[in-house]
Amino acid sequence: MHLDEYQAKRNFRKTPEPAAEPAKPHRRPIFVVQEHYATRHHYDFRLEADGVLKSWAVPKQPSLDPSQKRLAVHVEDHPLAYAGFKGTIPEGQYGAGVVSIWDKGTYENLLGDKPTPRTMTEGIKAGRLEFALHGKKLHGRFALVRMHGKGRGKDNWLLIKMKDESARPEPGAHGRSTAKPGAKPRAKASSPATRHRPSRPPKEGVVLTNLDKLMYPDAGITKGDVVSFYRRIARHLLPFLRDRPTTLERLPEGLGDNGRTPHFWQKNTPSSYPDWIARVELPSEEGETVRYVLVNNLETLLYLANQGTLTFHVWFSRIQDLDRPDFVLFDLDRGQASFADVVAVAKELRTLLKTERKQAFIKTSGKTGLHVLVPWTAEGGYDAARTWAQGLAERAVETFPNQATLERSKAKRDQRVYVDVMQNVKGRHAVPPYVLRAIPGAPVSMPLSWRELTPALDPAQFNLKTVFRRLARQKRDPLAQWVRALTRTAKG
Fold first, then answer.
1. Final residue belonging to a domain, choices 257, 283, 314
2. pTM for this structure?
């Protein structure tokens, strides 16, 4: 009965999540915190009780700082087997996105030691839980307290670290949190980047391992093929990676035949990576320091490919001026629309950009859509760039109301192309030209000339096995002018 809602929300023929099956309780109850990159990045906090995982969605990373109260939205119970789940929930399924295990361990119910003992389930009914966590990141005494009233039908709680010997102040936190659920976060002051000065790459080159491992089983593509691809494409790709904080899309075991192999996004660079790999330290929204990798040379590119990186995702700005993007992205998400409509919308954007004397560049997204890119040379930073892009997108949608939309909800788009400009935000990332995508077929995000953009074009034709034949035949690099424009803005 506890798992009826969990079961009803999921199609287990399509999602790799565990089905709602009975499981034997653990001798000592467990907890798990799963990091979930869904529509919104959040953390799922789960406590074992009565043979299930009692669950809360926590928008911000749990903290050891007693002054930092975290909103926690009570959600449906999950099966005990979910404590070990990590992987990708497919698009179109409930909770679609990537799940990884952020912390796990056992816990003690502190309510059982009260003058009037309570079980965890009784504590949930009463609106207060107290427990001691024994994890790698979270340890010591915590409380979950139901908030008075219910916001928009949701059961809102607060996750609070209690004062004990394991309490720690949160970096960058000042005073107690007074944010209300649903309130917009205040703008953060810009913090200067701290750049790690790397040593020289090894003269003997990068050590490569397990090169016969299948990374794209459907196409018979090995890690050796991926490394070779990035070695050969480096001179085209590196100008779009250099000096940009980079998030790595890693699949150390490849795509796999069933979609259940580890698949995660890595922002923080492990300390185990060699000193000759450049990093930049930036504060996250939670106040913690994130050490982004900088892919500034061939050796770093190959080292990361050897670590199972298939796709590199970069910021819109460089470390020389992180508050100012040097390009704007119009992401044309095909969805259920025809590719002919995607082409029509892209060409309309180009026409509108010409009226503003802006040069537009076009490439495949590496999946089914298109990316229109514009060097940002006007005054202003991210807010100005996004506002300008939004206005242009609105004009394109006015021209093609039946083919294009600004509607973010997939369910409401019908068969229209989504013109997405919302990624033009500091800290968000984009897929640069010439990178592989982590989907079957090993497609490549490929630059195009505008004259070859027709409804007959098939984006899947650009992949690891075909891209170099195309480059060999190519008389002009479609992005040559953009590279020069980026070089000018970088020198500034």
1. 314
2. 0.64
